[in-house]
From TrEMBL:
Residues 6-134 form the Nudix hydrolase domain. Belongs to the Nudix hydrolase family. One of its GO terms (molecular function) is hydrolase activity. PROSITE patterns: NUDIX (PS51462), NUDIX_BOX (PS00893). This is ADP-ribose pyrophosphatase YjhB (NUDIX family). InterPro entries: Nudix_hydrolase, NUDIX_hydrolase-like_dom_sf, NUDIX_hydrolase_CS, NUDIX_hydrolase_dom. Keywords: Hydrolase.
Length: 137
């Protein structure tokens, strides 16, 4: 049977710093509250995905990013909806800037491979990042 739940368009930002570390946020709200994921959120009405990924990353981390290309899409079950997330590879504007948690994020940081292994990630994050070849150094 087809899934008849409404779809909610969302974006995610896959961002590495100059050291190859990956930008992650600890989610402040469901889905996956308290777990770590890439920054992102809903695409607002009339907004392009590229504009949404720039806005969401700035709101959640204080960092300005430039979208480069789409890496892939994931579907996340929500409460009565399905979140369809388009994940974008992005670069940080400027160097040496550190993320500061804001908006829906309880924390924000860049992590290396060891740091990533120590975090409790939202479901599917590690699989998607691995499949797209964008895990941190």
């Amino acid at each position: 049977m087809d899934d008849l739940r409404p779809e909610v368009a969302c974006v995610g930002a896959v961002v590495h710093d100059e050291r190859g570390r990956l930008l992650l946020i600890r989610r402040g709200h469901d889905p996956s509250a308290g777990l770590w994921s890439v920054p992102g959120g809903r695409v607002e009405r009339g907004e392009s995905e590229a504009d949404a990924v720039v806005r969401e990353t700035a709101e959640e981390t204080g960092l300005a990013v430039h979208p480069v290309r789409v890496l892939g899409r994931v579907r996340i079950d929500g409460d009565g909806v399905v979140f369809t997330v388009t994940d974008w590879l992005c670069t940080v504007a400027g160097s040496g800037r550190q993320p500061v948690a804001g908006d829906d994020a309880d924390d924000a940081t860049f992590v290396d491979a060891a740091g990533l292994a120590a975090l409790e990630l939202a479901p599917g994050v590690l699989t998607a990042l691995s499949g797209w070849g964008v895990l941190p150094s």
